[in-house]
Amino acid sequence: xxxxxxxxxxxxxxxxxxxxxxxxxxxxxxxxxxxxxxxxxxxxxxxxxxxxxxxxxxxxxxxxxxxxxxxxxxxxxxxxxxxxxxxxxxxxxxxxxxxxxxxxxxxxxxxxxxxxxxxxxxxxxxxxxxxxxxxxxxxxxxxxxxxxxxxxxxxxxxxxxxxxxxxxxxxxxxxxxxxxxxxxxxxxxxxxxxxxxxxxxxxxxxxxxxxxxxxxxxxxxxxxxxxxxxxxxxxxxxxxxxxxxxxxxxxxxxxxxxxxxxxxxxxxxxxxxxxxxxxxxxxxxxxxxxxxxxxxxxxxxxxxxxxxxxxxxxxx
Length: 316
Fold this sequence. Notes:
Elements: E1 12-18, E2 23-29, E3 38-44, E4 51-52, E5 65-66, E6 68-72, H1 81-91, E7 96-98, E8 101-103, E9 108-110, H2 125-133, E10 152-153, E11 163-164, E12 167-174, E13 182-191, E14 195-197, E15 203-205, H3 218-225, E16 237-246, H4 250-267, E17 268-269, E18 279-288, H5 292-312
Parallel strand pairs: 6-9, 16-18
Antiparallel strand pairs: 1-2, 2-6, 3-5, 3-18, 4-9, 7-8, 10-11, 12-13, 13-16, 14-15, 14-17
C-alpha cells in the first residue's frame, strides 16, 4: 500500500542523488496527460530562504497551475536543477501557453548541505533532468536520497554534533465510505537547525553533545547558553510540499501551505529560525470536493509525520 505523496493521482516523484558529494534533488511532477498542471500555493517562513518562482504562486497573480516542483540541496547553486526540469517539460510540450511558446512553471526551493559532503558539489540542470527521468508514481523512496542526501538536524554546536536526517513522505486518506476518498499527503526534506521531536516532544534526531550519545535539547541549550559563542551552524531549512486530490482555488492552496507549517512546528523545535529557510508548497489535483479547512488541518498532520519519517529513515 502506498502511504507516500505519490498515492495522490497525478503526482510522480523522482530523485537524483550524488552519494559522493552528498547532495541531490527531488522532483515532483504534477501535470496530467493533457499537460494541465496542479493548482499551487506556497508559504515561506524562516530567515534564510532560497527559492525560485514563488511570487507567481501568490493570490492575484496570473498563473494558477504549476507543472513540477523542485527540492534541491546545494544552497542557491541548487536552484539550477529547475533548468533541467524545464527542459524535460518543454521537450514534452508541457507548459503555460504564452503566445508562440509553452513555458513550464517550475517553482523550486533549496536547502544548505554544503557543510556535510563537498562544498563543490551541488545539483545542476543535468541532475534535475535525471530526476524527471526517474519520476514514478511508485511509493517514494525515503531517507538519504535526492534532496535528503545531505540533510542534518541539530546544528547549534556545529556539524560535528548534528544528526543525519533525510527525506520523508506520508499520506492520509479519509471519507472512503462509498464516496471518492479525500487524500492529503506531504513530502519533506529535513535539514533543520533545531531537533526533530516525536508526538510526545521527545527528541528523535538532533543536537548531540561532543562527549555523549544522548540527544541534548536544542531549545534548552539555547536557553541555558544564550547562544554565547555558538559556532556558525551552517545553513538549515525544511523544504517540501503537501498535495491533495481536492479541488482548491489558488487562494485556498496558499492557505493550506500556511496551515501545513503548523505540522512543521510540531515536529521541529525550534522551527522557522533565522538560520532556516522553511518553505512548503501546496498542490491540488482537483478530483474531489473538500473543505479547505479540512485539507489544511490534514496537511499539518501529514507534514509532521513526513518530517518524523525523514529522521527515522535516515542513515546514521
